[in-house]
Task: inverse folding
């Protein structure tokens, strides 16, 4: 659920030229990794995979975790937006099944923005005419339906 003060700041401001690209930030990555370990431990789970960094066909950082109930969850970081999200692990599909970030308040206290599933599942309706041609072409080809599909993109 999106808290009132977060709802006032939608994810629309993050839908900017460059948001689908593989941006890296080593300092932010280090902070995020430390927070992921802390949050997952507090929630009774554990980290079970290495960090995957932004690269072609992945615009975000990800760490695979195992929740206390046995559910595999990827904790995600969109570096350009300082945005943290979570999704169920299913490598057989490109579209992420977003879910609440475990212990999300820890990321918020550290100055990161935690995205609620309903924000990421919102329809993607941004005007991309001013975006670079490469991004416009990716959007046209892949036809992302949700805001989260653009921010946590799989575009090649």
Result:
């Amino acid at each position: 659920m999106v808290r009132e003060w977060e709802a006032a700041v939608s994810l629309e401001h993050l839908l900017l030229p460059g948001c689908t690209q593989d941006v890296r930030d080593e300092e932010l990555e280090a902070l995020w990794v430390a927070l992921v370990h802390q949050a997952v431990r507090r929630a009774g789970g554990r980290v079970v995979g290495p960090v995957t960094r932004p690269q072609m066909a992945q615009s975000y950082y990800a760490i695979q975790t195992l929740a206390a109930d046995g559910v595999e969850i990827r904790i995600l970081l969109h570096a350009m937006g300082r945005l943290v999200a979570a999704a169920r692990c299913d490598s057989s599909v490109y579209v992420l099944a977003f879910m609440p970030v475990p212990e999300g308040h820890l990321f918020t206290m550290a100055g990161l923005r935690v995205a609620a599933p309903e924000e990421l599942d919102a329809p993607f309706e941004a005007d991309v005419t001013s975006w670079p041609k490469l991004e416009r072409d990716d959007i046209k080809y892949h036809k992302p339906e949700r805001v989260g599909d653009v921010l946590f993109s799989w575009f090649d």
About this structure: The chain has one domain: 19-151. Confidence is low (pLDDT under 50) at residues 1-8. Residues 19-151 form one domain.
